[in-house]
Amino acid sequence: MIAMLYAPYVIGSYVVTFAGIGLYTVRMLAQARKAARQVPPEDRPWT
Amino acid sequence: MTGFMTSTRNQAEAMPATDRAPTSTTFSRALGIAALVGIGWLIVFGLFLSPNDRVQKTGVRILYIHVPSAWLAYLAFGVTGLSSLAYLWKRTRSLTWDRIAGASAEVGVLFMGITLVSGSLWGRISWGTYWTWDARLTTTAFLFVTYIGYLAVRGLGGTHQQRAKRSAVLAILAVVEVPLVHFSVTWWRPLHQNETVENGKLSGLMLFTLFVGLIAFTLLYVWLVLHRQRVLTLLDQVDDRGLDVAIAERRNEAVTS
Amino acid sequence: MNMWRIARLVAAKDLRVEWRSRVVTNQVLPFAALVMVMFAFALDNDQVLTRVAPGLVWLATMFSLLVIVQRAFAVETADGAMDALQVAGVRPGGIFLGKALALAAQLAVLELVLLAAAVVLYKTEIVAGGIVLLVTTYLAATIGLAFVGTLYGGLAAGAKGRETLLPLLMLPVVAPVLIGATRATEAALGTENATPSDGWPWIGLLALFAVVFGVGGTLAFGSLIDE
To answer: Does ipTM exceed 0.85?
Structure first.
């Protein structure tokens, strides 16, 4: 009974955590793609 | 100038893989996969395989993401402080340190936000309230706001060097400020809630799940900062390039007119 | 030039500018008094007001501090005065101390007015036994606030959107002063049967705060205004 009562809180915290990380990652990679169009590969020191 | 631009565009078309994931390397890809596997593992163990706590019942499951994200946020702010110090020290001065500091602070703010949300949900279950004015909670909230301010200062503009110096000084000040805030809040509210679960009494499988969470989140942190730092490098380059183009255009105007 | 001499000259200049424009006396003081009246509207209970008066006085001080700091640096950046000082090779540590001194003087006037407003509006009573503690609290807190205000004001000066950025940066930093000064003032005024001996530990915190930001600001101010 108590377990059922707590479930929304538990699931909510997992959803917030992974949705937050996911959104941040997606936004970051999209920004990278956009910026990369203006920077030639030889100017990327990590490649 | 136009000729140069077309040639880069052709190169980019020739290598679609690097354009789709411009900040990836073999290492970062392996790291990303490891982090994803870790998170999958954490979800399976955290939500399904680990047992309920005697007192907390299923509420204990929030702990497996709450504790790792709190740890990460503190780690991230520590990295920001150290990289800022490295930037301010003349012998190691490099914009790379500045970008690592910025990337780490951003990831830290993200995880601190997650920590506050998951923590208040957990508090609602175990203390019956979303928030208490306990010293640790209050300091955490202050850290969150302080680093939001830090990120705002990074966005103020100016040259890269100006941004780097300004934000590095601010990061050091934040490191100085945090103990003062913590000290004053502890004095203000000396009686604080004891953690009901953290004081021992986690069973073997629970500890293991928490451990998985810590490793998965740490891998994730390294992956995020690595990529974010590369994206910031790209953005700085775009900035410089825009300036170069503007100067070249001006020069051409002066020659032709 | 000696750093203290620079500080004295900068402070005298700032206060002279202030004296001529009278922005603090004509705008900030009325604003602060207005905030005190608004608190009374919001709380609407004489006992509650007397109980929370020390906190409200310090809260109103912090809000007014934001306004004064904006003003102190708007004067400098408007005509590039700070750049001129930099070019002239004036030591930034001296500029920092001077501006902080001028800010502290203005804050002190403001705090006296706010305390008087609390006595009149909130029925606050000043107890003879707590006067030493009260004066020490005001001294320590004012110096600390002046250092932080100058440091973060210099950081945000000349940046776009500094009006909104300054409160975000500064309020979390001055939180220990708000806590410490309020508790010490409560002890000095005997709010909730507190005695002056309850207040002295907080003076330690306020003094530590002032020293940390005084030293930090003197060292860091150069790299902050160096544009």
So the answer is: yes
